[in-house]
Amino acid sequence: AADRTAIRHFPLTRDELDTYDAIILGDLNLRALGPTTLANLEAFVSEHGGGLAIVAGDRFGFAEFAESPLVECLPFELTEEAVSPGSNLPFRIRPSALGFATPFLQLADTPAENATVWEQLPPAYWRLAIDKTKPGVRVLAEALAADGSQRTPVITSHFLGAGQVLFHGTDELHRWRFRRGDVFFGRYWQQAIRTLARRENAEQRQEFTSDRPLYQ
């Protein structure tokens, strides 16, 4: 049956977009939205303080981002050297030190329980291989190869103007639902969306810099 809560079309104008707090952009053909809508979506984030989640997939690449305003929303430079499709070998997703301190990556009620949950989550198989992120991008979780020899960013976050962008280098978090339903998958996305939906007044926003990514 059709989802009765689904809207009939993607919000096309700035006024329509501004009625939302966060938008999830999955693995789709950007040409379906058109240049004007893409420009409005970039403004929704950078000017209006909206939250945007970009989820990479293996159907459509990022070539169309290169000539669109959304290229600024990516956490990496769009070059062949910076990003390439990953292999289909299994890998586990592990939070970085910064990720373990990030509220929406808490999948349990205590730090110890949270670490155990992440250790036991099912592996994923497809990912985008990101070699280097842009300055200011926070790497929240990494793809850990089976032998532990390689770590590459897989969940990142950064601010773009007044808004925030959450990037997923894989669309296989759904594997967390195996035999557990939405216990972890649902909790993660609920917390992530709440974080993205915390819109602020762009005129009141302040920016701070630091000499290291994590302080005790």
Q: Which overall shape is indicated by the principal axes computed on the Cα atoms?
A: globular
Tell me roughly what share of residues is in helical segments: 10-25%
Biggest sheet statistics: 6 strands, mixed
Rg is 17 Å
- Helical element count? 5
- Name the strands of the widest sheet in spatial order: 1-2-8-7-6-4
Oligomer: single chain
Report the order of strands and helices: HEHEEEHHEEEEH
- N- to C-terminal separation? 50 Å
Mean pLDDT equals 87
Strand content: 15-25%
Count all strands and give the number.
8
Low-confidence segments: none
| Class by SSE composition | alpha/beta
Structural commentary:
This protein is α/β, with parallel strands linked by helices. It contains 5 helices and 8 strands; from the N terminus they run αβαβββααββββα. The chain has helices spanning 14-17, 35-46, 97-100, 111-120, 185-196, and strands at residues 22-25, 51-55, 83-85, 91-95, 128-130, 138-145, 151-160, 163-168. The strands form 2 sheets. A 6-stranded mixed sheet has the order 1-2-8-7-6-4. A two-stranded antiparallel sheet has the order 3-5. Strand 7 and strand 8 (163-168) form a beta hairpin. The longest helix is centred in the first third of the chain and has 12 residues, at 35-46. It starts with 13 loop residues before the first helix and ends in a 20-residue tail after the last helix. The mean pLDDT is 87.
Put the structure in a nutshell:
This protein is α/β, with parallel strands linked by helices. The chain contains 5 helices and 8 strands. It has a 6-stranded mixed β-sheet with strand order 1-2-8-7-6-4. A two-stranded antiparallel ribbon has the order 3-5.
